[in-house]
Amino acid sequence: MKNLYEQYGNQVRIHPVEIQVNGTSGKYFFPDDSILRNETIIGLAVLPPTFDLENSAYLTLNSPETDRPLIGVDAFYNAYVSLLDNNKFVINQQPLAYYAIDQADKDVQQIYTSSFTPSKSYVTVAAPTTANRLSAGQSIVLHFFYLGSE
Fold first, then answer.
1. Most buried of 41, 49, 137, 150 (most Cβ within 10 A)?
2. Reduced to 3 states, what is the DSSP secondary structure of residue 122?
C-alpha cells in the first residue's frame, strides 16, 4: 500500500482536532470543525502515550493547542473512535490505538470518506470512572489527513 503522500502528492493536508474531556461521562464529542466538514478524509492518526525508558514511566504530554494534558495510557487503550456522516456511521467504535503512529512512521491508517459530521462524531472511553483512567481537564488530539486543492 502506498503512503498517502505517494498516492495523493501535494493535495494532502493535515488538520488536528482536539477533543476535550470535561467530565467522566465516557463519551466525548468532536468540536464542530468547519475545516473538515466538507472535505474528503483519507487518513487518521494519533500519537500514542510515550514511555520514557530512562525513568521507566509514561510521559505526560500536552496538547499543542491548549496545553491541556493528553489522556494517559490506560484511557488511551480503552478509547474508541466513531465518525458519523449525519446519523450514519463511517467508523463505529474503532479502537483509538488502531490509529496510533510514532513520530518516525511514514504511513497512517487510511480511511476514505467524502463527508463526515464532526459535531456528531465522538470518542468513547470504556469504564471512565476506573481509578486514574480519566479526569476532567484532559484532551485527545486526532490528526486528520484530507485532500485539499493544489
1. 41
2. strand
Q: What are the phi and psi torsion angles at 109 (to 5°)?
A: -70, 120
- Bridge partners (DSSP) of residue 80 are 95, 124
Q: 141: domain range? A: 20-147
pLDDT tens per residue, range 83-103: 999 889 999 999 999 999 987
Chain-centre distance for alpha carbon 1:
22
Q: What is the pTM of this model?
A: 0.91
As for how many domains the chain has, the answer is 1
Average pLDDT over residues 70-92: 95
Instruction: Of 137, 135, 115, give the one whose Cα is nearest residue 125.
Output: 135
DSSP characters over 15-79: EEEEEEE-SSSSEEEPP--TTTTTSEEEEEEBPPP-EETTTTEE---B-TTT-PBBP-HHHHTTE
Q: What is the mean pLDDT of residues 103-113?
A: 84
Extract the C-alpha cell encoding 93.
Answer: 467504535
